[in-house]
Design a protein that fits this description.
Pfam families: PHD. The chain is an alpha+beta fold and 297 residues long. Helices cover 40% and strands 8% of the residues. The protein has a five-stranded antiparallel sheet. Helix 4 runs antiparallel to helix 5.
């Protein structure tokens, strides 16, 4: 402010000021800063805890006002705040529109991010009012108003006990019970006094017969498996015999073909033709007799 002359007495400041800036800069001493803060009616003071939300941020962040200073009479960002976080300390110059008092901040139940919750706990450890332990007071249930008094009742009279229904006489018919309850009673006492025997469970014999049934199925399966093994062995034996007979027939056909070639001078193709014409019908005949199939050659 123009009336302040402390800029010309550097040693009069506490702490002393080493550099005042350029001559055309506006400079405010500590006293001028306090007066300007009161004149502008700032909502926060130094060391106050607050919530800071700058432009573009979705949620406010817990912080503390470290310093209040002005670079002009209408400085829009007089607060130097330091954020609470697990990382290195970070600060920023913010304005009145970006800060909110600690009591006017969000409730603990609305803070879902783990990092913001940790920042709130760090602020509480630094001296901020407890927020994580404050829970809303439970709402007391509404009591039902008493029923109006009837004629002859006194507000000081004791409460009337509920009377039990009188037992029916021996000759009077008993009250009708539900069908399920009556069925249970009839099973317990079918002849009026003689208790019936409890029905035996049918599940136990069924469970005892299950292993016998499984054993019979296993025996039948093993018998079928042995029969299949014997059939496979017999088929292999028949196949081996057929292969031996086919080899013998082929050998005889080759010998006869060579003899015919030596006599007539035929080529190897004629010998192969004679082998096919002699050995193939014999093989088909033997194979059909062996397996009971019919072929026409």
């Amino acid at each position: 402010m123009d009336r302040c002359d402390k800029a010309f007495h550097a040693k009069c400041h506490d702490p002393p000021v080493a550099y005042f800036g350029r001559p055309d800069d506006q400079w405010f001493c500590a006293t001028c800063t306090r007066e300007l803060a009161e004149m502008r009616e700032l909502s926060l003071k130094v060391d106050d805890f607050c919530w800071v939300q700058c432009t573009g941020e979705a949620h406010p962040w817990p912080a503390q006002v470290v310093r209040i200073d002005f670079c002009s009479l209408a400085d829009p960002r007089p607060y130097w705040v330091q954020y609470f976080d697990a990382g290195p300390p970070e600060g920023q110059w913010v304005g009145e529109v970006n800060v909110k008092a600690w009591a006017a901040g969000p409730r603990w139940s609305s803070i879902h991010q783990a990092r913001r919750r940790n920042a709130v706990r760090l602020a509480e450890a630094a001296g901020a009012p407890a927020l994580s332990t404050v829970m809303p007071a439970p709402s007391t249930p509404k009591r039902k108003p008493p029923a109006p008094l009837k004629e002859g009742d006194s507000p000081l009279s004791p409460e009337r006990k509920r009377k039990r229904p009188a037992k029916a006489a021996s000759g009077a018919p008993a009250a009708r019970r539900s069908s399920r309850v009556q069925a249970i009673l009839d099973r317990k006492d079918p002849e009026g006094g003689q208790k019936a025997k409890a029905p035996t469970s049918r599940k136990a014999p069924r469970l005892r017969r299950e292993p016998e049934k499984n054993d019979a199925e296993d025996d039948e399966f093993m018998q079928q498996a042995s029969e299949m093994r014997s059939l496979i062995a017999a088929a292999k034996e028949r196949q081996r015999k057929l292969e031996e007979e086919l080899a013998q027939v082929g050998t005889l056909g080759a010998c006869s073909a060579r003899q015919a070639d030596s006599c007539t001078g035929r080529t190897s193709s004629s010998s192969m033709y004679s082998l096919r014409t002699v050995a193939l019908p014999v093989f088909i005949r033997d194979f059909s007799l062996e397996w009971g199939w019919e072929f026409w050659v």
